[in-house]
Amino acid sequence: MGGLKDIKGVxxxxxxxxxxxxxxWFEVLWGAFDSLGFPVSKEEYKQAYIHGERTxxxxxxxxxxxxxxxxxxxxxxxxxxxLVENKxxxxxxxxxxxxxxxxxxxxxxxxxxxxxxxxxxxxxxxxPLVLVSNFYGNVSSVLKDFCLFDCFDSIVESSVVGxxxxxxxxxxxxxQRLGLQPSEVVVIGDSFSxxxxxxxxxxxxxxxLRGAGWEEKVDVCVxxxxxxxxxxxxxxxxx
Length: 239
Fold this sequence. Notes:
six-stranded parallel sheet; about 240 residues; about 10% strand; alpha/beta
């Protein structure tokens, strides 16, 4: 398996890995927002993005039944409100724009998932799979909406278990769900700090999907394997 020996189970990250092929969601959302032509710089939008992520992480806004399209609506609503309050945008009814770019980002995620699904299904035929994700309590609804739910034997979601990446303990829970030793598990994710480095700290093997996005301090030697496209997992798993 691409240099990874003695692997008996697989842990996948979700956001940024399966649903965007390694592209950080900040970049996806910024691209959609920027297409509207507002006089807001990328750095200014980044502040709104960070505010939105913190707001959703700290407040029970997302409910278990919400789909990813719902999540995108909430994200953009919070971001637009922040941009108005901080005078980067003038007060106005931005709902039409929010709906349009939410749909655009949702379709991007759907296309990414549609591309990844057959490979996930084939990997699942060979190995038990666990999803370990920093999410809002609705990742099961998101997976069902995208026809991915049956690809995973168990789900470890940060808002449910009370542990968030980059805490290695969340990956320890994933390994525990598999009933394996860390050395028998490979973790696949797009974030070096939250996925690759964190999982390596408990002894898991790692495959880093290195894509465009958030700048991180990295040490490429930590990852056992580095890929730049999700479909390269065909080669990693010899499928």
